[in-house]
Amino acid sequence: MTDGLRIRLDRTLCDGFGICARHAPEYFSLDDWGYASLVGNGSVPEKDRDAVMRALLDCPVHAITSMGESRPPEDSAQQPEPTVAPEPHPKSEDNEAFSSFIR
């Protein structure tokens, strides 16, 4: 079960084709020159996912990117806590650089 899709619009890549606003006008608006702006914070509920994905896939300059889908944890009690291995402490005499520089 997903909470929804997250998208991002890179306005520096947009060439003003306007395809995104045709497919998903609730999420993309066009300025006076036809360049797109993202409406909202980029969260897309499941009911609008198909229209937004069509806009993403049809963008000729790939200005729209998917940030993934947020998913609630299935059962956080079953997932073990990640452990981090301790960083080894190297001996200093093994790491000294030798130089032939003479003063």
TrEMBL record:
Key words of the record: 3Fe-4S, Electron transport, Iron, Iron-sulfur, Metal-binding, Transport
Pfam family, one: Fer4_15
InterPro entries (alphabetical): Fe-S_cluster_ET
GO terms for MF: 3 iron, 4 sulfur cluster binding; metal ion binding
Alphabetized Gene3D superfamilies for the sequence: 3.30.70.20
Superkingdom per UniProt: Bacteria
Cofactor(s) needed: [3Fe-4S] cluster
Ranges for region Disordered: 63-103
PANTHER family with a match to the protein in the record: FERREDOXIN
The protein's name: Ferredoxin
Organism: Mycobacterium paraffinicum
